[in-house]
């Protein structure tokens, strides 16, 4: 009993000392912004990449003179891709580190409660990756660097119908907020274009077998497939589709709503017969960001999400400089004029916000996968 | 006082986790029922209360009580067909049941909004108390923890509690004494369900938003960690375990301020620390921080 008491007391002391250090660190010179990244958990694959991009943005900002003559610094917190730790992270950034603005995020399910909380606290949250259209209604403090799913759904439906001219589509999207909203939007857009959706398949992330899903996908003899995959699930799906004899882009074309370099790279592991899958790449056409990123880190960005993190940090830094303030409301207002000075590296680069703080414009690069590379593609 | 707010938030979470840990402790610690699906009850309480309040417009108190009852009922439902199973099979069925609830919430969009989650869950007395809402909710949770602790202590000190321990230590013996052990197992699952459902409902109204992501199996294992560290078959141990595990968990976020270690490394280190803590407890102090109180009886009965 005594031993355990000593233990408890020492733990409490340890914690309180951490907390006091937290406050002292706050009074340093640099301007701090809060970054929420999934460093562990189901989406950790992208975390490293996105963090590297955010750091690149900070480095470039500081080389160009920083923010109001002071260096910019990121305070990075891991969301673990789970809502509760994500909330811990956000509360720590806002209440302990007292950051004037939050950015980052990944899954809408993790970012939604954080957005509600940030809205209440009067701290702007510039979403870097989450795309649920529901963010539009959370409040004025919630802004986004990326386009919502309705936008992406329309883009891929337009592309598929224009390119293939087919009428009957099968859809395969992951069963999370992102995948489901995107599927809804794709279905609506296809129907508007006069095409028909013959099958819809939602798949769970992280499985090692998607044969049952693939059989359902092809049950009604679709003329074309539209879907989206993160790299790991994409590799399994395509491999197994090949084994089942379901991949033949010449006959039944596949379109990927948000094709990523990691997805293309994963396809290297399957035979050459599989090239010819088409999709939309949200990176800017000139690929300047990819080159910069590769110079800095030695690797190409795994996904376009990295570019979105880069944009978010650069935009915040510029908005602070323009507002000549780190006061949350001033920064938020300045962000609305950001497209006057900043050309982004994701979704065509136009970073205009609409009145709700969501992105009003986006352009995608049409690509075809050839030998595991994304190659520019033109619809004839 | 920003830091005070953060601390109050942490303490509120301690309380919610303490309720959750006490519910599991009743089953695992006292009755020896290896339950790997406790998060199901938490989820059921959260979803029932949130949906009744958000969609049906019922008062929050009704929602919370309904959440408890739903979880308690699910406990009966789960224990009824499985009550004769041995502990390892019991563990597997409960693990599966936990996932069933989460997958139901993920896929039945018409009811639960699926992966989008339930948003804008109302909070009790939200309009009346404004500035000190955090403190109000913390006190509310504290009172609930105190009441639940007292009720559970009364229960575990009663003959019923001794029955539970008898089932844990020697089920055959307790059967031979004419105890209906299967009925007791169903009862203990129901009571554990009630408490976990209460914790879930309080969590939902505190977080304002829930989604299936909140209720992954990992949560159950964190609760197991709390019991292993705090001490099995000891309600005070469950509360202490919740505080210690949560504190370790959150404190890793502050280490970076003072040890030059990258936040990416720190995140990975967090789970390692928790894992090491659990393993070292199992090796060096298997009874946990607060050991089970063994009653000694005078020789003459």
* Poorly predicted tracts of residues of chain B: none
User: CATH homologous superfamily name of the largest domain in chain A?
Assistant: Response regulator
Would you tell me the structural class of the helices and strands of chain A?
alpha/beta
CA(first)-CA(last) distance of chain B: 59 Å
Number of domains of chain B: 1
What sequence of helices (H) and strands (E) makes up the elements of chain A?
HEHEHEHEEHEHEHEHEHEHHHEE
Give me the side-by-side strand order of the main sheet of chain A: 7-6-8-9-10-11-12
Give the low-pLDDT segments of chain A.
16-28
Give me the count of strands of chain B.
0
Describe the structure.
The complex is a heterodimer of chains A (380) and B (301). Chain A has helices at residues 2-26, 44-63, 83-96, 108-121, 149-164, 177-192, 211-217, 231-243, 261-266, 288-297, 305-323, 328-335; strands at residues 31-37, 72-78, 102-104, 125-127, 142-144, 168-174, 196-203, 224-227, 254-256, 278-281, 365-370, 373-376. Chain A has 380 residues and is of the alpha/beta class. Chain A has a 7-stranded mixed sheet with strand order 7-6-8-9-10-11-12, sandwiched between helices. Chain A is globular, with a radius of gyration of 22 Å. Chain B has 12 helices and no strands. Chain B has helices at residues 2-30, 39-54, 60-82, 87-107, 109-112, 133-157, 159-169, 171-176, 181-207, 217-230, 235-255, 263-284. By secondary structure, chain B is mostly helical. Chains A and B meet through helix 1, helix 2, strand 2, helix 3 and helix 4 of A and helix 1, helix 11 and helix 12 of B.
């Amino acid at each position: 009993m005594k031993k355990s008491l000593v233990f408890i007391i020492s733990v409490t002391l340890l914690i309180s000392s951490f907390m006091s250090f937290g406050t002292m660190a706050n009074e340093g010179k640099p301007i701090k912004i809060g970054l929420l990244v999934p460093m562990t958990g189901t989406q950790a694959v992208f975390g490293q990449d996105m963090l590297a991009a955010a750091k690149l943005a900070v480095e470039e900002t500081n080389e160009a003179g920083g923010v109001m003559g002071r260096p910019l610094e990121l305070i990075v917190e891991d969301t673990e891709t789970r809502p509760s730790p994500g909330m811990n992270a956000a509360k720590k950034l806002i209440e302990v580190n007292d950051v004037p603005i939050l950015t980052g995020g990944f899954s809408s399910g993790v970012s939604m409660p954080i957005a509600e909380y940030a809205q209440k606290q009067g701290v702007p949250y510039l979403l870097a990756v989450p795309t649920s259209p529901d963010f539009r209604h959370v409040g004025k403090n919630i802004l986004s660097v990326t386009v919502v799913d309705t936008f992406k759904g329309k883009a891929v439906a337009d592309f598929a119908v224009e390119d293939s001219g087919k009428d009957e589509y099968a859809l395969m999207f992951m069963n999370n907020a992102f995948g489901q909203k995107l599927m809804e939007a794709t279905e609506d857009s296809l129907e508007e274009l006069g095409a028909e959706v013959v099958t819809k398949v939602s798949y769970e992330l992280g499985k090692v077998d998607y044969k049952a899903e693939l059989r359902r996908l092809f049950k009604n003899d679709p003329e074309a497939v539209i879907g989206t995959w993160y790299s790991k699930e994409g590799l399994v799906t395509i491999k197994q589709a090949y084994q089942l004899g379901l991949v033949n882009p010449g006959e039944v074309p596949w379109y990927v709503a948000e094709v990523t370099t990691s997805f293309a790279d994963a396809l290297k592991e399957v035979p050459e017969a599989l090239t010819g899958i088409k999709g939309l790449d949200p990176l800017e056409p000139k690929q300047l960001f990819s080159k910069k990123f590769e110079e800095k880190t030695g690797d190409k960005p795994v996904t376009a999400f990295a570019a979105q993190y880069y944009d978010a940090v650069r935009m915040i830094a510029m908005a602070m400089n323009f507002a000549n303030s780190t006061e949350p409301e001033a920064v938020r207002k300045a962000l609305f004029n950001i497209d006057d000075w900043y050309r982004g590296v994701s979704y065509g680069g136009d970073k205009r916000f609409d009145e709700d703080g969501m992105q009003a414009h986006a352009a995608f690069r049409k690509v075809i996968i050839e030998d595991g590379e994304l190659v520019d593609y033109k619809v004839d | 006082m920003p830091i005070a707010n953060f601390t109050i938030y942490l303490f509120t979470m301690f309380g919610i986790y303490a309720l959750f840990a006490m519910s599991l402790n009743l089953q695992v610690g006292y009755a020896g029922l290896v339950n790997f699906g406790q998060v199901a009850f938490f989820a059921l309480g959260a979803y029932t209360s949130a949906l009744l309040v958000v969609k049906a417009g019922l008062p929050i108190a009704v929602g919370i009580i309904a959440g408890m009852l739903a979880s308690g009922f699910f406990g009966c439902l789960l224990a009824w067909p499985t009550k004769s199973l041995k502990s390892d099979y019991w563990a597997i069925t409960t693990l599966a049941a936990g996932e069933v609830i989460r997958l139901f919430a993920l896929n039945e969009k018409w009811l639960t909004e699926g992966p989008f989650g339930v948003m804008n869950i109302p909070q009790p007395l939200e309009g009346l108390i404004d500035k000190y809402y955090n403190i109000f909710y913390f006190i509310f949770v504290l009172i609930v923890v105190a009441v639940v602790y007292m009720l559970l202590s009364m229960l575990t000190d009663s003959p019923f509690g001794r029955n539970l321990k008898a089932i844990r230590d020697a089920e055959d013996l307790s059967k031979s004494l004419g105890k209906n052990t299967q009925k007791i197992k169903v009862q203990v699952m129901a009571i554990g369900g009630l408490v976990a459902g209460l914790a879930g409902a309080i969590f939902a109204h505190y977080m304002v938003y829930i989604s299936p992501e909140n209720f992954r199996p990992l949560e159950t294992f964190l609760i197991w960690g709390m019991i292993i560290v705090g001490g099995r078959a000891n309600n005070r141990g469950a509360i202490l375990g919740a505080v210690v595990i949560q504190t370790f968990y959150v404190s890793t976020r502050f280490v970076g301020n003072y040890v030059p270690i990258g936040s990416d490394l720190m995140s990975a280190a967090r789970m390692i620390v928790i894992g090491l803590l659990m393993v070292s407890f199992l090796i060096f102090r298997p009874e946990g921080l607060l050991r089970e109180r063994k009653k000694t009886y005078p020789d003459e009965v």
